[in-house]
Specification:
The chain has 358 residues and is α/β, with parallel strands linked by helices. 34% of the residues lie in helices and 22% in strands. The chain has twelve helices and 15 strands. InterPro entries: Gfo/Idh/MocA-like_OxRdtase_N, Gfo/Idh/MocA_oxidoreduct, GFO_IDH_MocA-like_dom, NAD(P)-bd_dom_sf.
Length: 358
């Protein structure tokens, strides 16, 4: 697929249109776009008057507009889709049809088939299409990559990873209380990250087993789920996601035949963004030493300093890709592979089976 769609020379500023200004748009995308010197957030699409006022307050240099037609009239160089999951396909297709490169927030599309069709749509138009899988650049995942590269674990046979939350009362939002029609639930929300991380670390998945549950009263989508992946190379990934974990387990463990790496705590970048910190800050993405991981070899353990998180790398990669100097920061085919695993996990849980993919 071409990485085309750049308007002007390599040194020109790229105008960005942000579609949606909920938590994803306001907390993650807007500040990360602003942190990239080549990008300028020109307009934000929202028809909600309160959010339009918030855009004016938060982003003095950006214009709130009511719809896509008003956005396209401003001739953006990049469109970023951060609207509710069920709307991703329609809005991304509209932007591609307008001749504009597109970033889609995760989960990419409701189904793998829709994802494949969207990838083909972009390829036919020679335009960049990529997916905001920002947690590839979490501090803990970057640290795991460093540990794996060092070889001290030996041959890895198991990866354990979890996102535990404590939210016993469902919130009245589509994300927390919606159903299948909303593409809601933890498997899509947090599972899309956990699955993507496992795929990036250990490669294609041969089989899937899952337990997908609704625990809290009144919810219509999963809020407590477990997914087991057997990778083609034999590594098993065990992934947990829950809204009912009052005391969190280890963030991750990697077990090899010569050592084990264990990591507690949570990557700080989301909390930093919510607190108003930005990637230019000296402490950006840096974990406190008390949650650095431990590497044990059966006789002793030592602390492994965490690599800094780097969400800003995503939009750095977008700029490089638009300038045709590099690949998309996230290949949308990777997101399609994740959606195939989500569908297999749903079948596995419903039928109490192990679903083979390879």
């Amino acid at each position: 697929m071409s990485n085309g769609g750049m308007h002007g020379s390599e040194q020109d500023e790229l105008k960005v249109g942000l579609v949606g200004y909920g938590s994803g748009g306001a907390i993650f995308h807007a500040p990360l776009i602003a942190a990239q010197p080549r990008l300028r957030l020109d307009a934000v699409v929202t028809s909600n008057p309160e959010r339009q006022a918030q855009v004016r307050a938060d982003l003095p240099g950006s214009e709130p507009v009511a719809d896509l037609d008003a956005l396209f009239a401003r001739e953006p160089d990049l469109v970023v889709i951060t609207t509710p999951n069920r709307t991703h396909v329609e809005l991304a297709k509209a932007a591609l049809d307008a001749g504009v490169p597109v970033v889609v927030d995760k989960p990419f599309t409701p189904t793998a088939q829709e994802g494949r069709e969207l990838v083909e749509h972009a390829r036919d138009r020679g335009l960049l299409l990529t997916v905001f899988q920002n947690r590839r650049w979490d501090s803990d995942i970057r640290t795991v990559r460093k540990v794996l590269a060092g070889g001290e674990l030996g041959r890895v046979h198991r990866f354990e990873s979890r996102f535990d939350r404590w939210s016993p009362e469902p919130k009245p939002t589509w994300r927390d209380s919606g159903g299948a029609e909303d593409v809601a639930g933890l498997l899509y929300d947090l599972g899309s990250h956990l699955i993507d991380q496992a795929l990036q670390l250990f490669g294609p998945v041969a089989s899937v087993y899952a337990e997908i549950d609704r625990r809290r009263p009144g919810v219509r989508a999963d809020d407590d789920s477990f997914v087991s992946l057997t990778h083609a190379n034999g590594v098993r990934s065990h992934l947990w996601m829950s809204k009912l974990a009052a005391a969190p387990g280890p963030r991750l463990r990697v077990l090899g035949d010569q050592g084990t790496f264990t990591k507690d705590g949570t990557d700080p970048q989301e909390a930093d963004l919510r607190a108003g910190k930005r990637p230019v800050d000296d402490t950006w993405g840096r974990e406190s030493e008390d949650i650095w991981g431990e590497l044990g070899d059966g006789e002793s353990t030592r602390t492994i300093p965490s690599e800094p998180g780097a969400y800003q790398a995503f939009y750095d990669g977008v700029v490089e890709a638009i300038a045709a100097r590099g690949p998309a920061p996230v290949d949308p085919a990777d997101a399609v592979a994740g959606l195939e695993i989500i569908a297999a996990a749903q079948r596995s849980s419903e039928n109490q089976t192990v679903e083979r993919l390879l």
